[in-house]
Design a protein that fits this description.
Radius of gyration: 28 Å
CATH superfamily of the largest domain: CCA tRNA nucleotidyltransferase, domain 2
CATH architecture of the largest domain: Orthogonal Bundle
Low-confidence stretches: none
Number of helices: 18
Distance between the termini: 20 Å
Helix content: 40-55%
Largest sheet: 5 strands, mixed
Length: 454
């Protein structure tokens, strides 16, 4: 199958149908009316804006998450924005099906309406990057820029998004570190089409800087400050935000996810297939069989996590995993890799070269000229005298679970600051995980997570 045939097969599966479009447009209109009525009823000066893929018509078929931003005037103090914005979000959500309060830079409301997830996010009504006060304010500008520049290439964005999802490189969340939807839109606008973006996978990496807003000419000093900062941070790409010269759109894109993209693009161009867009879920194997094959061991710390969203929790879990890696290395264990996440409870998995370490202790004995002394001399291999008393070396084995318990007791591990109490009370499992983590354990120890040729 050639590339064009693959695209022709994929597009009908990812392009929303007319019925789906009608549903989305109706849903957005209903939400806008509810928001405007609630704002008027509360006597507030605020405007509702839809942002994200629904507003830009770059959403994939079946993916209808709505982002409704509640924009307040620039002269509203930040604390008032947070407090009033949360009240407004709650009031709107009371008219929807269900909701909960979530936390990022400031609280927002995550609601559900007609089977669709709806985020109600307070922000400032910005007209320029110079007005931006919080991280979410740019979203209104992002939506406007994409609508002005996409020029009918919506399906090209859909192809790139679906490809990135299929190869597990989509999502800018901290626990993913992949391509964001906005980054995908910029790359299509910059290069023209899905296939052109794929063809530039190597070129983009070497070119390094993409500047669709032409900031390096318009705001050279500010833009160069961004470039230098991002080069120092060793980012795979620097994509100057076309609406703000202070921001790299690809700041959250990690080398690993770009590496996956890099290799999968080559594979796809050599052997085009629908499987890159819609991969079959691999069957997880037996993690214990993998451990036996490799002769390694798995330590899992399992604990209740504080009430944090994954974008806040995962970095602290990663910091803790790196802390265990350093601490256990000092204690004579080699950590071959680690994995973190949350499946009900939070977990840290560590693959080790051994489960026990040899340690030497000095064993004091009796005086050498006694019966016990002669017996002590016979039983021990390494024996010496200090004065008239015998001493011997004795090798003992210490289990890694006991070593971890001692390290935690003595504050010997650098942990994420909000996880210290939770990790100290963790269940420490050796070569065993509960059923809900069996697939995760296999994917981790088998390296299927990063099996670029799989």
């Amino acid at each position: 199958m050639d590339v064009e045939a693959v695209i022709a097969e994929v597009l009908p599966r990812i392009r929303p149908t007319d019925e789906e479009r009608a549903f989305v447009e109706g849903l957005m209109e209903e939400l806008k009316i509810i928001a405007e009525e609630t704002i008027e009823g509360m006597g507030l000066d605020a405007k509702p804006y839809f942002v994200g893929s629904l507003a830009k018509d770059t959403y994939l078929a079946g993916d209808h998450d709505a982002d409704l931003f509640l924009a307040f005037p620039l002269d509203v103090p930040l604390e008032e924005l947070r407090e009033t914005g949360l009240k407004l979000g709650r009031a709107i959500a009371e008219r929807l099906d269900s909701y909960e309060v979530a936390y990022a830079e400031h609280p927002y409301v995550r609601a559900s309406y007609r089977g669709v997830s709806v985020d109600l996010v307070p922000c400032y009504d910005v007209k320029s990057w110079r007005d931006v006060k919080t991280a979410v304010d740019r979203s209104i500008l992002h939506t406007g820029w994409v609508l002005e520049n996409l020029n009918g290439r919506n399906d090209e964005v859909r192809l790139l998004k679906r490809f990135l999802k299929g190869i597990n490189a989509y999502g800018s969340e901290i626990h993913v570190r992949g391509f964001s939807g906005y980054l995908a839109e910029i790359l299509i606008i910059e290069h023209g089409s899905f296939l052109e973006v794929l063809g530039k996978a190597d070129f983009m990496l070497r070119r390094k800087i993409i500047d669709p807003g032409n900031w390096l000419k318009r705001e050279y000093e500010i833009a160069m400050k961004t470039v230098r900062r991002e080069i120092d941070a060793d980012r795979p790409l620097i994509v100057m935000d076309p609406v703000d010269p202070r921001r790299n759109v690809a700041a959250n894109l990690g080398w690993e996810r770009y590496g996956v993209f890099y290799f999968k693009v080559r594979e796809f161009m050599e052997e085009p297939s629908v499987r890159f867009f819609f991969p079959e879920r691999p069957k997880a194997g037996n993690y214990l069989a993998e451990l036996r094959r490799k002769g390694t061991h798995l330590v899992t710390l399992l604990f209740d996590a504080p009430g944090m969203i994954d974008d806040l929790l995962i970095p602290q879990l990663e910091r803790s995993a790196r802390g265990f890696e350093r601490a256990l290395s000092r204690e004579g264990f080699r950590v071959l890799g680690w994995d973190v996440g949350r499946k009900g409870k939070a977990f840290i998995m560590l693959e080790l070269d051994r489960r026990e370490r040899e340690r030497v202790v000095i064993k004091p004995g009796p005086e050498f000229f006694t019966v016990n002394g002669r017996d002590f001399y016979r039983k021990n291999g390494r024996v010496w005298l200090k004065g008239k008393r015998l001493f011997a070396e004795k090798a003992v084995k210490e289990n890694v679970v006991d070593v971890i318990a001692e390290l935690l007791e003595k504050n010997g591990v650098a942990l994420g600051k909000n996880l210290r109490a939770s990790v100290r009370n963790a269940d420490v499992l050796l070569d065993y995980v509960p059923k809900e983590l069996e697939d995760e354990a296999y994917i981790f120890v088998s390296r299927e997570k990063w099996n670029l040729k799989g």
